[in-house]
Every structure is written in structure tokens, then in C-alpha cells.
Amino acid sequence: MNIFYGTGVAMVTPFQADGQVDYEGLRNLIEYLIDGGVQYLVSLGTTGESATLNADERKQVWAFTAKVVKKRVNLVAGIGGNNTHEVVEQIKEFDVTGYDAILSSSPHYNKPTQEGIYQHYKAIALAAPLPVILYNVPSRTGSTVAAETTVRLARDFKNIIGIKEASGNFDLFNQLMRDKPEAFLVISGDDPVTLPMMAMGAVGVISVIGNAVPKPLSAMISLLLINDYKAAQKINASLVEFTRLMFVEGNPAGAKNALKHLGVCDEHLRLPLVPVSSKIAEAIKLETGKLS
């Protein structure tokens, strides 16, 4: 599945001031990212504020995104949750038109055991009409998908093709890279550590910062894929402060503020998320100007 090598972007979902989905803003974002050279897009991952969209809104956003993309890049749908039965039903009802894979985060809040995580993903794999990418993000879910569990899933289900790894745990990365099946993809899910993860064998990133700076990020990832670390390090250094600002007051508030400065879409969020403070907004404006 080398269509998932390179730069993926977990897209924000633009909203209007009244909280409705801003479809014109979403169209602008899609075009901006494709022009920026990314390889694939993720619709309604965590960065897309999927937890605040209802079922009808999610279906509309997925359909609109596929219609605008028109297969110019590959598409991934974020479908996850902590109610396994509900996630499976969503997957069964999902219109796969235009999509290439499903990204599914491990169950949040419940804190399942490793066996519980395995059984959750087993149910998803058996129901999924598309390849599945696991998503390990302990900072949000409250539990970690152990390397042993990921490897077990990769070996038992051929349609589980990779994992978005955002644990920040390099001991886990080492075990995973050592033990995984050769074709199984490890994808960085954490912008600050994408470069070292790719040095260890990750095949790219599903990025937050890529919403605002797709060109320099894509250039860096392309260099890493050909093992030109010296040139990639220069780009990475230029992105350090911008990356920090994207997360200092929460995701996707930082990315949406940068996109507002770029004229792509507005920065409205749905509660409980709120925009970044004026101080951080000024800092983001300055860094965005340097990179755009």
C-alpha cells in the first residue's frame, strides 16, 4: 500500500460563525493541500473535530470531500470511537466512493486491556470494506496500543495495513519496527518527531501542521524518503517554532488560526474547543508569514 508513503494531512473541518460546516472553506482547503503537493488526505480524523459532528454531517463532509478531490489524491476516512458495536455499524454504512482506507483510533476513555484493544480492531477488520490503518494516540485515548498488539493485529488481518503512531514512545517504535511484517506501514502521527521516526523506518506522516504548510512539509518528507537527511534537517529546523505553536493551545485551534492568516478558511471551532489567544495568534501570524 505505497499510496500511503509520503505526506498525509489530517484535515481540519472549517466552520462558519454560526457553527455550520463551511463547505466553501473546505473546498479551499482541499485545493490548497493538493496544490501543496500532499499524497493523501484524511477526512474527519481527530483534527477534523469529528467528535462534534453528528452522523448526517459526517456523511455530508465525506461525500463532499470525495466529490471535490476527484481522485487527484488518495483519501482516508476517520471512523473511530469507544463503542465497538457503534464503530462497526458506522463502517458498514460508510459510502466508500472515492476513499482508499479507514483510519480508526483506539478506544478512548474506557481504557481497555490489550486484549480488549485487539478484539475491538478485530471486529473492525472483519467489517471493513477498505484497508484499515490503526491509530495509537495515548495522549487522547488514555491507553496505549502496545507494539505486541499492533504486530499481532498486523499478522492476523491482512486488511490492517499500517498504524498512525503518535505515542512518542521510541522504545515502542523500536519494538514495532523490529517485529512488524515487512509490508506493514508505520506512519508518524506526531509532527515534532516525524524526522526521527522516518530515520527508524516510518514511511511518512499524517500531519496536523500540513494543513497550513503543505509545501515545506511535503518537501521535507520527500527528502526523507530518499534518505537525504542533511537537506531534510534544514527544513525541519525551519518548522520547529511553527510546529510548537500549532499545539501550544490545542489542536486544531493553532492550525485553524494559521489557515485564517493564509486566507484559506476561518478559524471557528465547535465547543468545547475555542480559538487561540491573541498572543499566540500574533506569534502564529509571524511564523506563518516566514513559511508561506
From TrEMBL:
It comes from Mucilaginibacter lappiensis. Pathway: Amino-acid biosynthesis; L-lysine biosynthesis via DAP pathway; (S)-tetrahydrodipicolinate from L-aspartate: step 3/4. It is found in: Cytoplasm. Pyruvate binds at T47, I206. Keywords: Amino-acid biosynthesis, Cytoplasm, Diaminopimelate biosynthesis, Lyase, Lysine biosynthesis, Schiff base. PROSITE patterns: DHDPS_2. Its main location: cytoplasm. This is 4-hydroxy-tetrahydrodipicolinate synthase. It catalyses: L-aspartate 4-semialdehyde + pyruvate = (2S,4S)-4-hydroxy-2,3,4,5-tetrahydrodipicolinate + H2O + H(+). The active site is at Y135 (proton donor/acceptor), K164 (schiff-base intermediate with substrate). It comes from the Bacteria. The keyword Zinc does not apply. Homotetramer; dimer of dimers. Its EC number is 4.3.3.7. CDD domains: DHDPS. It is an enzyme of class 4 (lyase). Belongs to the DapA family. The keyword Cytoplasm applies. One of its GO terms (molecular function) is 4-hydroxy-tetrahydrodipicolinate synthase activity. The record marks T46, Y109 as: Part of a proton relay during catalysis. Catalyzes the condensation of (S)-aspartate-beta-semialdehyde [(S)-ASA] and pyruvate to 4-hydroxy-tetrahydrodipicolinate (HTPA). It holds the Pfam family DHDPS. SMART domains: DHDPS. SUPFAM superfamilies: Aldolase (SSF51569).
